[in-house]
Structures are given as C-alpha cells and as structure tokens.
Amino acid sequence: MVRGFQGPELGPRSVALTTKHFPGAGPASGGQDAHFPWGKEQVYPGRNLEYHLLPWKAAIQAGTAMIMPLLRGAEGVTSAGVGMAYDSGIVTGLLREKLGFTGVVNSDTGITTGMPWGVEALSVRERYRKAIEAGVDRLGGDPTPEIVVDLVKSGGLPEARVDESARRILRVLFALGLFENPYVSPTRRAGRCARPSSRRRRTSRSVARSCC
Q: What is the reported pTM?
C-alpha cells in the first residue's frame, strides 16, 4: 500500500502516506474502541508485541512518510500509563530508536483536547509539551501553533526540538514538490479522479449485489 500511494520513493507524483495506528490497534483491552474512555488501554497478555510490529517494519522499509501513534496506552510494554503519542518509550524508544523510523510522527486528531488518555490532569499546554517531548512532530486537528511558540519563548520547550520536527515535515513537503508547484492541473485531475476503471466498477457492482 505504501508503494501504491508513494511510489518507489517520495516525489512530485506521490501521495504522502500516514500509516496508522502504531504499534497496532488489535489487542485492545476488552476489544473496546480507543475513542472512548473505557477503551484507553492496550494489552499484550501473550507478550507478543513483536508479532504486532511486523507490518510496521514492512511499512518503514517501504518508506512510509508518516506514522500515527495509537490513542491508547501500552499496558505492560512501558510503565508510562499514557496514550502512545505521549509515551517517549513508544515514539522515541520503540519507533525511532529500535525500528529506525526517521519520518514524521503525526498524532491522532484531538489528543490534546478530546481524547487525552492518561494525561487528563494536565492542561492543554502541558499536553502539547509532553507529546512533543515524547517525539511527536505534528499534533493532528489542533491548529494552535501559538501554544508551541509560547512554550519555546517561556523556556518550556527547546527551540532545537521544534526545529527537529520542522525539518522532518519540510523534507516531506520538499520531496512532494509543493514549494515548486503546489497546484494540480484541472484537466489531469478530471481524467484521474472519480473515474473508476471498468474493472473496478464491475467489482463494486458485484459486491453491492452480494450484500443485498
């Protein structure tokens, strides 16, 4: 899938892919949904984390541009007791240092406001700081860069740490050629988008008929 979206390497003809949710959402406690407070724990009763990491190793090898950590915490993997995006043992220790990922880490949408699992007692400002310190580069769905600016100006966050994330994000934008040409040709778009092949249409119709 990574090569299907991005091609053999990230370039102007690529779609930069975010692979999610690291390190896999399968072993949820009680099979619960991580978007709700009762689903904020991940368990590995069989001590089989390595099995869940197999697709992530493949995605990193294929060159995925970005990876998104899971909302919930990894019980028994680290002792942090917080959502993956706030856990330096997951983002920095496991994803970056052990697996060698050098791309962008995107948080899930709303981890600082709607689903701050494990850090509910912290302020939004403190959540920003904790996520960035853990290794997150981009906070999804939270368009409030003034919080990051304030953290740097007040000495709460080193400017060098923000520069690291800026470099990772800019590498993706430069690779896509967005600074040279941020526009899409309307004529090329009309010929490529929303025009499924006849084979895909037949498959879609077959699936629809089988569901009725």
A: 0.86
Task: Reply yes or no on whether 108 is catalytic.
Answer: yes
Query: How would residue 200 be classed by pLDDT, with cut points 50, 70 and 90?
Result: low
For 56-106, what is each residue's pLDDT tens digit?
999 999 999 999 999 998 887 888 889 999 999 999 999 999 999 999 999
Specify the pLDDT at position 154.
Answer: 97
Please give the angle made by the CA atoms of 90, 94 and 97, to the nearest 5 degrees: 130
User: Is the C-alpha dihedral spanning 40, 43, 49, 53 positive or negative?
Assistant: negative
Among 108, 137, 150, 163, the active-site one is 108
How far apart, in whole angstroms, are the C-alpha atoms of residue 108 and residue 68? 6
| Number of other CB atoms surrounding residue 51 within 10 Å | 13
Helix (H) or strand (E) segment spanning residue 105 = strand 104-105
Amino acid at 9: E
- 3-state class (DSSP) for residue 21: strand
Tally of CA atoms within 13 A in the half-sphere of 111 that contains its CB: 31
